[in-house]
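Support reply, case 0932

Customer input (verbatim):
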Amino acid sequence: MALSLKGRNKLLRHWKEQNGNCAICGEKITRETGWHLHHIIRTTDGGPDTHRNRVLLHPNCHNQVHSQKLEVVTTGFRKGS
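Our regenerated output:
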């Protein structure tokens, strides 16, 4: 995604809307930290592949979301049910 202009624009839009911060830990996302574009509602569970259903997370934060079954919300996270 980062190699195409459309993919770069998607990432940049998310990054700007999140003020350059991870939606989980709130720390800055940089090229050095890396990032993952996370679907809030998984597409395999019927979630749309739309801007409103995605957030940028650090790779480690993304792993925690999946391993600890955390639910990402727009202001942070809460335990999944």
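We compared this against your earlier run and they match. Two observations from our side: The first helix runs from residue 5 to 17. The chain has one domain: 5-79. Please reopen the case if you see a mismatch on your end.
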